[in-house]
Amino acid sequence: MIRSLSLILSLLLLGIAFAFTINPPYPLQIPNTFGHRYTIPADNPMTVEGVALGRYLFYDSLLSKNNTISCSSCHRQALAFTDGFALSIGVSGRPTFRNSMSLANLLWVRDFFWDGHSKTLEAQALIPLAHPDEMGLAPEKAAQKLQQTTFYPLRFLKAFGTDQITPELMAKALAQFERTLISANSPYDQHLQGKYTLTPAEKRGMDLFMRGSNREQTIRGANCAHCHGGAQFFQNRFHNNGLDASPLDPGRQEVTGFDEDFARFRVPTLRNIALTAPYMHDGRFKTLEDVVNHYSDHIAQSTTLSADLRGMIALTAQERQDLVAFLHTLTDQEFIRNPAFGNPFLRP
Predict the structure, then answer these.
(1) How far is CA 3 from CA 6, 9, 272, 303, in A?
(2) Over the stretch 204-246, which tens digit does the pLDDT of each residue have?
(3) pTM above 0.85, yes or no
């Protein structure tokens, strides 16, 4: 009898343990046009339970000092994971130093934040958490808050095989979720697949966007693709794009210490750009028209101005309208409405 009870208990414990080890790889769908030049860390493979946990953490204000701010406060799905403000406001009530960036297609990004001071999504995830003007809570204290709930220990057990919550595991879960935020189904993408016909204005704008100018051959082009080319519409590079003759923000130089990096900032994606106003690292431009006007007429010369922006041609009123029309074709309605990216606490 004792042996039978012992056997039953052992089988029960094995069954429970087995249930917690069923955590299949996350079925990440990579767009054919995006390529495979990305890295998923060997010590943080994407799993179904890991992504689900990261999604909960992303939307949970429990991670902030006063339980009012979550990652999603500054990265709203409806705005392509930006917040619509020039500078965000966190727990302190003070504005942040720079504009909130879109989280679309971070899987292909190599240096995070406007100045690239984080090399991985895992490292990036905990910085806003601890920043006094963002979420204002030390990661260790956030982990303690989660540990005291009845909700999270079981979910960490399912995702990572342990119910002991640490900042490292929190960062891994958040990074897993953020890597799923892939945007690749805009009208422009559908045009490439033969499923959408560009309007005449959108077609002219696309041609201008992709083409460089040549004064000698009287070829007119906006040369946007030089920095925002490729399927992702960004590059893993940093540029001084002529916002000021005497910039106040050192940008990338704060990270590298190199004089040539002064006032250079990461090239952001233009996917969903019509949703992510205001624009630039300081949110100075309210509209896409303001942005186009800047590149056409107002580039400020400085010692570190990117060479690609020297000698830009002035665009006509029609060309500016056409460029803006094309930029609107980069809006991915499926991305901003995908329930897999939404708030898991708000169940229908």
Answers:
(1) 5, 10, 64, 82
(2) 999 999 998 776 657 788 899 989 989 999 999 999 999 999 9
(3) yes
Provide the domain limits for residue 101: 21-183
Q: Minimal CA–CA distance to 110: which of 100, 101, 121, 126?
A: 121
The candidate with the shortest Cα–Cα distance to 100, out of 134, 132, 126, is 134
For the record, the structure tokens of 337 come out as 């409405």
Q: Which of 183, 198, 220 is the last residue of a domain?
A: 183
- Split into its structural domains, the chain has a count of 2
Q: Are residues 32 and 175 in the same domain?
A: yes
Contact 336, 77 (CB under 8 A): yes
Q: Are residues 169 and 61 in the same domain?
A: yes
SS3 category, 122: helix
Q: How far apart are CA 53 and CA 315, in angstroms?
A: 48
Q: What single-letter amino acid sits at 9?
A: L
With residue 206 as reference, give the H or E element that holds it.
helix 200-210
